[in-house]
Amino acid sequence: DQQVKQNSPSLSVQEGRISILNCDYTNSMFDYFLWYKKYPAEGPTFLISISSIKDKNEDGRFTVFLNKSAKHLSLHIVPSQPGDSAVYFCAASSYNQGGKLIFGQGTELSVKP
Amino acid sequence: KAGVTQTPRYLIKTRGQQVTLSCSPISGHRSVSWYQQTPGQGLQFLFEYFSETQRNKGNFPGRFSGRQFSNSRSEMNVSTLELGDSALYLCASSLMGAFGNTIYFGEGSWLTVV
């Protein structure tokens, strides 16, 4: 049972344009969400997070939007840069689950110069 | 400040052997979690330790075990290795857990079982 889903395995975007990565979840108990960027053979790098009391969080070029009624979140990267090319994972947690994260399958972003 | 450190980075083991992986969390972090990443299954939660106690456990067989020491360093052990255990094993640390905190990952330990 995939509780966190990233339905797009890959995404290709032109440099300077917006990248939108999507994530859906099924468990309504999830109340904290994180996005990670990962290069092959490296550990995931934290990008941005959002709690369920918010619907938007920004950090530089990265903005995460949360739609609780739709159980959907998205990561916007503006403007996209070639160095953003990597696999992006969304992860979800709930308050009573401590450090346990449930990950989506990842979306490979390719930013073309 | 130093990040999450995992050792060894790469190792090759034979089916049936056992392996121990080590993780040193960020100083001051008390929560340490372990994840397995495989091409087919993605990133899957193994278990979490907090203040030397296992707080959460994923759906892995009993061959996978772990522990946490008083200095928050953690080890995970896999006994009777199977070919399917070949994976990247990632350790993550945070102050108290996920909610409201950032969880930082190490570079991982690549395990190949032959």
Can you describe what's shown?
The complex is a heterodimer of chains A (113) and B (114). With 113 residues, chain A is an all-beta fold. In chain A, strands 2, 4, 5, 9, 10 and 11 form a six-stranded mixed β-sheet that branches. A five-stranded antiparallel β-sheet of chain A has the order 1-3-8-7-6, with no helix packed on it. The termini of chain A are far apart. Chain B has no helices and eleven strands. In chain B, strands 2, 4, 5, 6, 9, 10 and 11 form a seven-stranded mixed β-sheet that branches. Chain B has a four-stranded antiparallel β-sheet with strand order 1-3-8-7, with no helix packed on it. In chain B, a hairpin with a 2-residue loop joins β5 and β6. Chains A and B meet through β4, β5, β9 and β10 of A and β4, β5, β9 and β10 of B.
SSE map:
The complex is a heterodimer of chains A (about 110) and B (about 110).
Chain A: E1 4-5, E2 10-14, E3 19-25, E4 32-38, E5 45-51, E6 56-59, E7 62-67, E8 72-77, E9 86-93, E10 102-103, E11 107-112
Parallel strand pairs in A: 2-11
Antiparallel strand pairs in A: 1-3, 3-8, 4-5, 4-9, 6-7, 7-8, 9-10, 9-11
Chain B: E1 5-7, E2 10-13, E3 19-24, E4 31-38, E5 42-50, E6 53-57, E7 64-68, E8 74-78, E9 87-94, E10 104-105, E11 109-113
Parallel strand pairs in B: 2-11
Antiparallel strand pairs in B: 1-3, 3-8, 4-5, 4-9, 5-6, 7-8, 9-10, 9-11
List keywords for this structure.
heterodimer; A: 113 residues; mainly beta; six-stranded mixed sheet; five-stranded antiparallel sheet; 0% helix; B: 114 residues; seven-stranded mixed sheet; 11 strands
Mean pLDDT of chain A: 94
- Shape, per Cα inertia axes of chain B: globular
Distance between the termini of chain B: 37 Å
| Percent of residues in beta strands of chain A | over 45%
Binned, the helix content of chain A reads under 10%
Along the chain, the helix and strand elements of chain B come as EEEEEEEEEEE
Note the run of SSEs of chain A as H and E: EEEEEEEEEEE
Termini distance of chain A?
Answer: 38 Å
| Unreliable stretches covering 5 or more consecutive residues of chain B | none
What percentage of amino acids of chain B are in beta strands?
over 45%
Overall geometric form of chain A? globular
The main β sheet of chain B shows up as: 7 strands, mixed
Largest interface: A-B, 27 and 31 residues
Q: Which secondary-structure class do the elements of chain A indicate?
A: mainly beta
Helices of chain B, by number, come to 0
Query: What is the number of beta strands of chain B?
Result: 11
